[in-house]
């Protein structure tokens, strides 16, 4: 921890008494989780409340959290269910449900050490996925009458299958850049008990209409995906949300 951390985060907490205050971090070893470290250090201030559905988890990481005792007590204690419980994610979601904000001090105030035995590795990806999908359905999807899933591949189809029947009915299309998926023309939900089984169109992303739930990971395509998204001149939070 850097010597100025408490002073700077306390000052931010005084200004934002119902917010979780985080900070930027320096990773050790420097080459560990490079994409994740860029994400937590470079999110814009408005994205701290928008990119809360991704697999990265809380938009300010728990080792950097700072808030008042009064606000912590208002949100509630951590879930002490033990190994395998994503207690930071659950607390973060409850914090947002109660109207809490998220603020980051844009200085590197913490040395964030990676080690393979960390407790976070005991949390199953399927557990986190379930919480994320339910939070998406609770917080975002009620505001949209229909939406498109961006990614007709495995992650997009998995999201579709994980949704409740009510949310699935809002999905008007998948979109992609893969011509093989687009040429097929549709995705058939074979596991459905409905008759006929739902068939969801698969479109090129330029032919699809927002809003989008995006199931494409950021910072993995050499900028190609990000360029495609920017070319549509959409507003994050209103026209699309990142989920992967």
Task: Give me the secondary-structure topology.
Blueprint: H1 5-15, E1 19-28, H2 34-42, H3 69-75, H4 87-97, E2 101-113, H5 125-139, E3 147-150, H6 154-162, H7 165-168, E4 171-176, H8 179-184, E5 186-188, E6 199-204, E7 212-214, H9 224-230, E8 240-242
Q: Give the N-to-C terminal Cα separation.
A: 30 Å
Tell me the domain tally.
Answer: 2
Shape by Cα distribution: globular
Strand content: 15-25%
Cross-sheet strand order for the largest sheet: 5-6-4-3-7-8
Q: Quick one: biggest sheet?
A: 6 strands, mixed
Task: Give me the Rg, rounded.
Answer: 19 Å
Work out the helicity level.
25-40%
Describe this protein's structure.
The model has no long low-confidence stretch (mean pLDDT 95). With 244 residues, the protein is α/β, with parallel strands linked by helices. 32% of the residues lie in helices and 20% in strands. The chain is built from nine helices and eight strands. 26% of the residues are buried. The strands form two sheets. Strands 5-6-4-3-7-8 form a six-stranded mixed sheet. A two-stranded parallel ribbon has the order 1-2. It has two domains: 5-125, no CATH class; 140-242. It has helices at 5-15, 34-42, 69-75, 87-97, 125-139, 154-162, 165-168, 179-184, 224-230, and strands spanning 19-28, 101-113, 147-150, 171-176, 186-188, 199-204, 212-214, 240-242.
């Amino acid at each position: 921890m850097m010597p100025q951390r408490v002073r700077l985060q306390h000052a931010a907490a005084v200004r934002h008494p119902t917010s979780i205050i985080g900070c930027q971090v320096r990773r050790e070893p420097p080459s560990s989780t490079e994409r994740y470290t860029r994400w937590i250090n470079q999110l814009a201030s408005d994205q701290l409340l928008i990119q809360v559905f991704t697999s990265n988890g809380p938009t300010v990481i728990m080792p950097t959290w700072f808030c008042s005792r009064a606000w912590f007590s208002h949100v509630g204690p951590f879930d002490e269910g033990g190994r395998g419980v994503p207690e930071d994610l659950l607390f973060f979601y409850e914090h947002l449900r109660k109207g809490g904000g998220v603020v980051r001090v844009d200085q590197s105030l913490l040395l964030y050490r990676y080690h393979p035995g960390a407790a976070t590795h005991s949390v199953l990806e399927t557990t986190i996925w379930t919480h994320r999908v339910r939070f998406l359905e609770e917080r975002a999807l009620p505001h949209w009458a229909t939406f498109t899933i961006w990614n007709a591949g495995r992650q997009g189809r998995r999201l579709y299958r994980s949704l409740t029947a009510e949310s699935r009915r809002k999905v008007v299309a998948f979109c992609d850049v893969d011509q093989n998926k687009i040429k097929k023309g549709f995705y058939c939900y074979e596991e459905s008990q409905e008759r006929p089984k739902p068939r969801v169109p698969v479109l090129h992303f330029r032919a699809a209409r927002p809003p989008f739930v995006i199931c494409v990971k950021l910072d993995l395509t050499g900028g190609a995906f990000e360029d495609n998204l920017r070319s549509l001149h959409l507003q994050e939070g209103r026209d699309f949300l990142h989920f992967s």
